Amino acid sequence: MMWCQGPGYEPDRTKGQRVEAEGIPASIATAWGVRDQPRKGPKPALTLQRIIDAAVRVADAEGLGAVSMGRVAAEAGTAPMSLYRHVANKEELIDHMLDAAWYSAAEYSPTDEAAPDLSGGDWRAGLSHWAWQMRAAARQHPWAIRIPIKTLPIMPNEVAWFENALACMAGTGLSESQKASVIMLLSGYVRNLAATEADIWAAMQASGLAPDQWMSSYAQMLRKLTNPRDYPALAVFLESDVFDKMDHPDDEFIFGLDRILDGIAALIDAGR
After folding, report:
1. pLDDT for the residue 30
2. Domain boundaries, the chain
3. Measured on CA atoms in the order 208, 58, 10, 23, is the torsion positive or negative?
4. Burial 127-161 (b: 16+ CB within 10 A, else e)
5. Per-residue pLDDT averaged across 215-224, rounded?
6. Residue 73 class from Cβ within 10 Å (0-12 exposed, 13-18 middle, 19+ buried)?
7. Mean pLDDT for the chain?
8. Alpha-helix runs per DSSP H in the chain
9. Of 35, 31, 47, nearest in space to 83 by CA
10. What number does CATH give the domain 3-102?
11. Section 7-25 average pLDDT
12. Model pTM score
């Protein structure tokens, strides 16, 4: 995950200074390991991570709507009341799930030949890798894109990814404000395209048509509904057969990501 920090880098939250938990919401304090835990009695077999993993499995298999304290407890092989020793309610659990899902460290290797080259060590390769990993997380956990953003990055994995993106831009000459804008632009692009792709895929599945058939049926309908006199630009577009076949799923992502990175490169060059 922390590619710009070097292979295998992970921030160690078990050593060094501990964050003062006073005034910090319970879910955040728990995630960072600064919330007081019961010390008496044997160490409980159930852990917060085990609960989160179970909840993510339920959401991946059945959708976010299937996540309930009872369903997660069943998946984790425990009683529902035991979950409340670690999370106060379902909302707090979803906060942990979202941090685990969006910012998972799963590697993603694009299959398209035009995919970004990740072998270099410059800012562009770093941010490209960062964006591809976010895309992989969105594909692995599509329910995560349906959860509204409630705060700026504050959970452990969110902050780690924030740090990673900043590290990728070290030495670019960009101001800290510009770096923040770059992160907002890239993460927003990944999230928006993932949501759009999920909606299109759902529409195709509902139609019962194969992807190429679904695309070509749209083009055929447009040709019947429009004429070259009133829609000259669209007529030229339809004649190009762009909508007669479904593109590779990564093509749009690669195109947009490259344009964003080109713009960032222009901004860096202008500053120099």
Report:
1. 85
2. 3-102
3. positive
4. bbbbbbbbbbbbeebbbbbeeeeeeebbbbbbbbb
5. 94
6. buried
7. 85
8. 26-31, 48-62, 69-76, 80-83, 90-102, 123-140, 156-168, 176-207, 211-225, 232-239, 251-271
9. 47
10. 1.10.10.60
11. 54
12. 0.83
